[in-house]
Design a protein that fits this description.
The chain is of the alpha/beta class. The protein contains 15 helices and nine strands. The radius of gyration is 25 Å and the shape is globular.
């Protein structure tokens, strides 16, 4: 009887519902605890700022406070001199706590409010240490929540300057996609892409890069960003009795569209655009369903001339973008240093 119940669809749906409810409650509880901790730290930091202003006390007051708090809370390491300095910096950086208010890109004066309690204290310490611009910090808060990054993954994205790369691919989305789809597509593609995890020299063949990218698909998907689902490498399509192979094919779960990626080991050449356009048309005809949005193409080259790319894209009626990629290994000393010095609780 129990075997019957276990395999019954209604039972499976019910247990999945209960499991999701537990996960949701656990997440909400964790967020509440995190919000209370951040509130405490902000209030301590703000109080330090106020006392220093009112009484003209210098940085020595933080050392005295840390010493007294250590006597009151001997089992806690959260009130060290370093952490109290972080609290002061946190309060100074976010005077509008519990939110940070930043202008929307190209908004004409509109602002967005980003809740600070969405990420942990350790994420905030890293942001305060590594990123000085408020809008850039808000960007990493949003992306960390959206992509569920650990602190170290967030640090790698900061190290790779994701903020400066996102939305920078050359494209024709405004002319080829409806506005809601165009804005979303622009925000997803970046330039350049960093394939540092491959640890290759720049003089490699395209097939070798493709092969290694699919072997390290987790790292590749992290660099591409959330929403990309891998469909296949050297994906076969037949057009007029001729077989063709697409370098890399993905489906984007937010765009609801197939994404054709063509990879070139050398400099951009105008004829690459025509080939990419051809592949986009083939996927539109062979795979795209009525519920899918138009297929998008992304051409990745080792280097490119933006002027040549713009000339080559003129008149193309399929949505496509062109970006470069880098193979140099990122330097991670700063991250390692932070791991040694910034893990106070």
């Amino acid at each position: 009887m129990s075997e019957e119940i276990i395999h019954h669809k209604d039972y499976q749906d019910w247990t999945a519902f209960i499991a999701n409810k537990i996960k949701f409650t656990q997440t909400q509880a964790a967020l509440k605890v995190n919000a209370e901790l951040l509130t405490l730290y902000w209030e301590i930091g703000n109080s330090i700022i106020e006392k220093q202003k009112q009484n003209g006390w210098g940085s020595k007051i933080i050392e005295l406070l840390a010493s007294d708090l250590a006597k009151n809370f001997p089992e806690s390491k959260g009130f060290s001199v370093r952490n109290l300095k972080y609290m002061r910096a946190f309060a100074e950086a976010y005077p509008e706590f519990p939110i940070v208010q930043v202008p929307l890109a190209q908004s004409g004066g509109e602002f967005v409010q980003v809740p600070l309690a969405q990420i942990t204290w350790y994420h905030h310490i890293s942001l305060l240490t590594k990123v000085k611009d408020t809008a850039e910090r808000a960007f990493y808060i949003i992306e960390t929540v959206k992509n569920e990054w650990s602190r170290n993954v967030m640090l790698l994205q900061i190290q790779s300057n994701l903020y400066g790369r996102i939305g920078k691919a050359i494209h024709n989305f405004e002319q080829t996609l409806p506005e809601y789809q165009s804005d979303l597509a622009k925000s997803i593609f970046k330039d350049p892409y960093h394939f540092d995890f491959l640890m290759l020299s720049e003089k490699v063949k395209e097939l070798e890069i493709e092969k290694l990218l699919t072997h390290k698909i987790t790292d590749f998907l992290l660099e591409l960003g959330k929403g990309f689902a891998f469909v296949g490498r050297q994906y076969p399509v037949e057009v007029d009795d001729t077989d063709y192979k697409i370098d890399l094919l993905f489906y984007h779960t937010v765009l609801h569209a197939y994404v054709v990626i063509e990879l070139k080991a050398g400099e951009f050449l105008p004829e690459y655009i025509s080939k990419l356009n051809f592949y986009i048309s083939a996927i539109d005809d062979k795979l795209k369903t009525p519920t899918d949005e138009p297929t998008i193409g992304l051409l990745l080259c080792a280097s490119k001339s933006n002027v040549k790319v713009e000339y080559a894209m003129r008149g193309m009626d399929k949505p496509l973008g062109v970006a470069s990629y880098q193979l140099e290994q990122l330097v991670k000393e700063n991250i390692e240093q932070l791991d040694k010095n910034g893990n106070e609780e």
